[in-house]
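Exercise 3.2. Students should predict the tertiary structure of the chain below and write it as C-alpha cells, then compare their answer with the key that follows.

Predict this chain's 3D structure.
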Amino acid sequence: MSCSSNLRTSRRSFLLALLALPFAGSGHASMPAGLRRWGSGTFRRFGFLVYQATLWAGEDPLRPPLALRLDYKRSIAGTAIAEASVKEMRQLVSDEQQLDLWGEQMAQIFPDVRDGDHILGVWQADGVRFLQGDRMLGSVADAEFARAFFGIWLDEQTSAPELRAALLRPPAG
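Answer key:
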C-alpha cells in the first residue's frame, strides 16, 4: 500500500470519527453529550400497546438538544408512521403544503418496524436526525419541522397528555 493511500485511509478514519462526535455521550453512541434520561411512558391506540417512549434532555426538556426514543411493540409500516406523524403535527401547523413536504421526507426516512425495533429522534439546533441503533436513517434540517415533530409528544396540545406528563417527569437525583 502506498504512502498516499495510507494517508487517505487515515484522513477518512479521522473525518468519520469527527462526524460521530456530536452524538457521543450519555451511554448511547447516538445520544448527544450532556443529556440525561427524563421520563418514559407508553402509547396505546384503541387499547393496543404501540410503543414505549423515553425522553433524554438537558435542563429544559422542551428545548433542544433532546432525544426521544420509541421502542415499538408491534409491526408498523414506515409510511404509516409518517402519515400518523403528519396527522399529529397538523394540530400544531396549518400549512398543508409544508405538512405534505414533511410527510414525504418522513416517508423516505422511516423504515417499517416490528416488535422490538426502535427509532431515536435527536433534536438539535439545526433540525432532527433519526437513527435506528447506530445507523443513521436520515435527517430533516428544519427547525420548524423539529419543533412540530417533537410537539407530537411535548406540546401542550398533544393528543396524548398522559404520555407527555410521563415524558416530562424530571430525572431522579
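Discussion points: The longest strand covers residues 36-45. The radius of gyration is 18 Å.
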